[in-house]
Write a structure and sequence with these properties.
The complex is a heterotrimer of chains A (about 475), B (about 45) and C (about 45).
Chain A (H helix, E strand, L loop, with lengths): L6 H25 L4 H6 L6 H12 L2 H13 L2 H27 L6 H9 L1 H34 L3 H49 L2 H11 L9 H20 L1 H9 L2 H32 L9 H50 L5 H23 L6 H7 L1 H5 L2 H9 L5 H21 L4 H20 L7 H13 L1
Helix pairs in contact in A: 1-8, 1-13, 3-8, 3-11, 3-12, 3-13, 4-5, 4-12, 4-13, 5-10, 5-12, 6-7, 7-8, 7-13, 7-14, 7-15, 7-18, 8-12, 8-13, 8-14, 9-12, 10-19, 11-13, 12-13, 13-14, 18-19
Chain B lengths: L2 H28 L13
Chain C lengths: L8 H32 L4
Classes of the chains: A mainly alpha (about 475), B mainly alpha (about 45), C mainly alpha (about 45).
Chain lengths: ~475, ~45, ~45
């Protein structure tokens, strides 16, 4: 396989980025107070700039930078737009975030909400879905780290994979969410600026008109805006991404970290900025088609295009963009998932009067545990992780309506929600295997909508009131 | 796979997405929730 | 057979330029917000 930069150079770049991350972690770690508010919610007083940047950094994942070009390369222009609508999912979470802060100002995790709103049975299903998603998500990121270094510099897969997991774990342990927020700003800037530089250089070399003509000569079907797979992807990806965001503690944790004044604007702004990333990264894939580059592995189209187009400097740019995307996402997933597991399982179910120090201690253990499990799961590099991640589509889309309706409608029938979630996941999986992976989120969301609406219409729940919600949540938090 | 199925999935997806957006926006109107005004000076 | 309708060259180019300009603009905006919050000590 062709190697674009030498292994030592790749290690130096990754090492420099890692040192920057770790020193930030240690620097911030010395300054934070030793309570869970600071470690897990960054003091609950984060401003607009850091809040927006952390949303972008967490949402620009290894999949955004590697799969968007891959989708553009295989499906075409519609897939770039299809990928980009995931940014609008961040925007639609903005109004929800405001309402969440209003009804549960003292809330902690998405699991808190589900448990207090719907009871234990739904909560258990919800935690299973969350765990499934977190593990799948972490696995893809760890793998992407290994594949990235392997394809750019020929380094062994395990080295890159271990490097990203170890560095992220250590600095997350040290600094908590505050360290992540400050590094996220740098990461987001690195990703956005480097991507812009790459795109400007690429389209300076080949103008968009030339690229278009090349694609029309070599593979005109990529420009077809009525392509079957393309429209299906366009129609379903918003629901998949919305499901990912609505249920996931990554975003709930960021609602509670931000000041109330900036919550709404930070979700809208980050959503709009994010939308440009897959379109630009995806459009670079068309350069490969237009110029007839040989792409041995379709998921490596982005690094290969940039490396061929801009030489070793391009490889360095790609390495920085994707490594930053991976690091910021891995650390966010690690804090969010460990927070969810510890707050929701350890504190709620086993030790309601756990002290703050104990919580932080167990969160740290869980972070290490999650990292180790991830490394073990991806040790023997699985063949296609993206499809496995999309397999979570039916599960995450099953949470859309329970969350949305639970936040706005006090009469939602709890049994209907439980039935809806289970049926959504089941029928979504059937659609995944019998129709297409892209049909899964749509079927899942449709089933959820129908079952919950009918159940609530037939037998509305009159015992719940939103006024109780914050009391219940604070009651568990303050025990 | 038939093209009609793709169109169906697309249409369903767009309708559910639009419904969700409408539901959330309507919900915030119903509960009179608006984004707090700009006030960067406050700490 | 699926129907075919190709995006035109002008639209493709326009999208690329608009999105790149959008990214540049919003990054500048984000940096400006950071500078302002840094000055006012309202970062967190």
């Amino acid at each position: 396989m062709e190697v674009f930069i030498s292994a030592p150079l790749a290690l130096v770049i990754v090492g420099a980025l890692s040192v920057m991350l770790l020193s930030f972690g240690f620097f911030i770690g010395k300054r934070i107070k030793k309570d869970s508010n600071d470690f897990l919610y960054a003091g609950r007083n984060v401003g607009l700039a850091l809040s927006t940047a952390t949303l972008i950094a967490a949402w620009v994942t290894g999949n955004t930078t590697m799969s968007a070009p891959e989708q553009g390369y295989t499906i075409g222009i519609l897939a770039c737009f299809g990928y980009a609508v995931a940014g609008l999912s961040l925007c639609i979470f903005a109004p929800l975030a405001l309402r969440i802060k209003k009804i549960m100002p003292h809330g902690c995790t998405s699991g808190d909400f589900v448990r207090c709103r719907y009871g234990k049975a739904v909560w258990i299903v919800f935690l299973l879905i969350s765990a499934w998603y977190f593990v799948g998500f972490l696995m893809t990121q760890a793998m992407a780290g290994g594949i990235l270094l392997q394809s750019l510099s020929g380094l062994e897969y395990h080295i890159g994979m271990l490097l990203i997991m170890v560095v992220c774990t250590v600095y997350t342990l040290k600094g908590g969410l505050k360290a992540i927020l400050s590094t996220d700003f740098i990461m987001a800037m690195l990703i956005l600026v480097m991507l812009l530089v790459t795109a400007v250089l690429a389209f300076f070399k080949f103008s968009p008109a030339q690229v278009y003509d090349g694609v029309m000569t070599n593979k005109p079907e990529l420009m077809n805006i009525l392509s079957g797979v393309g429209i299906m992807y366009l129609g379903s990806n918003f629901l998949f991404a919305t499901g990912e965001i609505f249920h996931s503690n990554i975003w709930w944790q960021r609602i509670y970290a931000a000041k109330e004044k900036v919550t709404f604007r930070s979700f809208i702004l980050s959503g709009l900025i994010w939308t440009t990333v897959p379109i630009i990264a995806g459009s670079l894939a068309f350069v490969a088609v237009a110029e007839g580059y040989v792409v041995p592995q379709v998921n490596m189209v982005f690094p290969i295009v940039v490396s061929k187009l801009l030489g070793p400097a391009g490889s360095v740019l790609v390495l920085i963009i994707i490594y930053s995307a991976l690091a910021s996402t891995v650390s966010s997933v690690l804090t969010a998932s460990s927070n969810l597991l510890v707050q929701d399982i350890y504190k709620r179910a086993f030790k309601p009067n756990a002290s703050d120090e104990q919580i932080v201690k167990y969160v740290r253990y869980t972070i290490v545990g999650m990292a180790v499990v991830t490394v073990i799961l991806v040790w023997n590099q699985p063949a296609s992780m993206y499809q496995v991640l999309y397999l979570t589509g039916s599960a995450v889309a099953a949470t859309i309506w329970p969350i949305a309706m639970g936040i706005y409608n006090s009469r939602v029938n709890r049994t209907a929600v439980l039935v809806a979630m289970i049926c959504s996941v089941g029928l979504g999986l059937v659609a995944y295997f019998s129709i297409s992976s892209y049909a899964a989120p749509v079927v899942s969301a449709l089933v959820g909508l129908v079952i919950i609406s009918i159940g609530t219409k037939l037998s509305p729940d009159t015992s719940f009131s939103f006024d109780q919600l914050d009391e219940q949540v604070s009651a568990i938090s303050n025990k | 796979m038939a093209y009609g199925v793709s169109v169906l999935i697309f249409c369903l997806g767009v309708c559910i997405s639009a419904g969700l957006v409408g539901y959330v926006v309507h919900g915030n109107r119903k509960y009179k929730i608006t984004a707090p005004g700009k006030d960067e000076e406050e700490n | 057979m699926e129907p075919v309708f190709y995006m035109s060259q002008a639209v493709f180019s326009a999208i690329i330029y608009i999105v790149m300009a959008g990214l540049a603009g919003t990054v500048a905006l984000l940096l400006a917000i950071l500078a302002k919050e840094w000055k006012n000590h309202t970062l967190w």
